[in-house]
Amino acid sequence: MIELIKGGLIMVGAIFMFLAALGLVRMPDLLTRMHATTKAATLGATLIMLAVALHFAEVAVVARAFGVIFFIMMTAPVAAHVIGRAGYFVGARLWSGTVKDELRPNYDPLTHQLKSGLETHENAKRHPRDTDPD
Amino acid sequence: MSTVILLSLALMCLALCLAFVRLFKGPSLPDRVVALELFSSILVGTIGLVAIATDVPSLLDVAIVMALMAFMAAIGFARFLERGGPRDD
Question: Which residue ranges does UniProt annotate as crossing the membrane (chain B) (predicted)?
């Protein structure tokens, strides 16, 4: 039974990693490529580490395997966020079929300023209220 | 069991080759950094598989170090990109 579960975990993990690599080659732009790789590769490594924990079934090894899983789950989103942010700043081209880029109208790449679209002269004025302290 | 491990190793080898294709072609530096990230993830999985195949649990330490180094490399590359160092890609 354990052998069967182990074999299934290994196989599914390897397939997920292969799908991640396939997505990396086939996807059209940086952000979709990251979408394919980070999640699928993290899941693949997690499943294989679970198989390792099942195979050895000792406290020290299981703790280390779960340590690897925890570390990957913590760091993969951070790394993806940082790379995606850097890619956007560098000016990675988006796919021609992209429907929406909400950052483009509000973000100034030269000054790194993000606008809300409400910076009018009327909003910049101060309106004192009765409840304000003197 | 060994058939399953062999099959998965072959699949992951193929995945490494595909990631290398993107590393070679990748139109810009961020694409290549993403390919390197995937490299390290696949390597962590491969080390786990080798640990199962050879019954050596110490190999897990190698996997931990591999994941750590990949994270540091990604952060370093991203800092480099944002600061705008010299590059030709």
Answer: 33-52, 59-81
| Minimal CA separation from A107 to chain B, in Å | 16
Report the domain count for chain A: 1
Q: Which A positions 62-91 lie with beta carbon below 8 A of chain B?
A: 64-65, 67-68, 71-72, 75-76, 78-80, 82-83, 85-87, 89-90
Residue A101 lies in a domain: no
User: Is A107 part of a structural domain of the chain?
Assistant: no
Q: Which of A15, A29, A90 to mutate to test the interface with B (most CBs of B within 10 A)?
A: A90
Alpha-carbon gap, residue A74 to A63, rounded angstroms: 16
Q: Between A105 and A18, where is the model more confident? A: A18
Q: Indicate the residue of B34, B42, B49 with minimum beta-carbon distance to A83.
A: B34
pLDDT tens profile B3-29? 999 999 999 999 999 999 999 987 888
Band (pLDDT 50/70/90 cuts) for residue A105 is confident
Q: Does residue A72 belong to any structural domain of this protein?
A: yes
Q: Tokens for A6, please give them.
A: 């182990």
Beta-carbon contacts of B32 under 8 Å, excluding residues fewer than 6 positions away, are: B22, B23, B26, B89
Q: Whole-model pTM? A: 0.84
Task: Return the SS3 of A134.
Answer: coil
